Amino acid sequence: MSYASLIPHMTINDNAKAAIDFYKKAFGAEELARHDAEDGKRLMHAHLKVNGHDMFLMDAFPERGSPMTAPSGIMIALRVDDPDKWWDRAAKAGATVVVPLDDQFWGDRWGLLKDPFGHEWSISAPSRK
Length: 129
Description:
Layout: E1 9-12, H1 16-27, E2 30-36, E3 43-50, E4 53-59, E5 75-79, H2 83-93, E6 96-103, E7 108-114, E8 120-126
Parallel strand pairs: 1-4, 5-8
Antiparallel strand pairs: 2-3, 3-4, 6-7, 7-8
Helix pairs in contact: 1-2
Protein name: Glyoxalase/bleomycin resistance/extradiol dioxygenase family protein
Keywords: Dioxygenase, Oxidoreductase
């Protein structure tokens, strides 16, 4: 088994537990692990699978020197089998449209959403045209 990977590790400003619920509804995320912080309110670490890939997230801990907050300038790119299905599910769950899903000049069906926690998600697949 190889442990070589690149895993997005997102910091959520206020409520990582609510973010997990949103990612389950919007992107079909599967929760693999959850570790509460000592305060019992925030999450120290969570491990999700989205579209078969690992994703970590946590609440912000400014008292521990964690300056990371959303938005971070990072976009999560989801390459999927049916971008319209994924797009509709995310929009129904509460994602905001930044760039509408459409067939793009570079050959993908692509769009950009923002989740309620400030993170941007592109959804795409090769265009069927």
